[in-house]
Amino acid sequence: MANNRPTLTSLSERLARKTASVEPETKSEDAAPQEKPAKTSDGRVQIIVRMSPAERKALRQIALDQDTTAQALAEDAIRDVLRRHGHKTD
Asked: Which of 54, 52, 44 is closest to 79 using CA atoms?
């Protein structure tokens, strides 16, 4: 049986050609460069949180016990911290 899949080398070469053909955005010189975080369709941005496997397992168990998601629990916890420190939440 012949393997017709492209090699990783050919894929990386195609990607390099594709990115080289894209023209960089032009910016005015007086504008300060700003990184814009990727937004979802509802306007929220993604953050990454590191935790131990045991913490992750416990969070998932709590979410299961409360019939919710770990995402919802994390969002609630973040809103609680913001409120405690006097920041308004939406």
From this structure: 44
* Burial grade of 70 (CB within 10 A; 0-12, 13-18, 19 or more): middle
pTM value? Answer: 0.54
The three-class DSSP label of residue 39 is strand
Mean per-residue pLDDT for 41-62?
A: 94
Sequence ranges of the domains in the chain: 51-90
Instruction: Kindly report, residue by residue over 52-88, the tens digit of the pLDDT.
Output: 999 999 999 999 999 999 999 999 999 999 999 999 8
What's the CA dihedral at 28, 30, 34, 38 to 10 degrees? -30
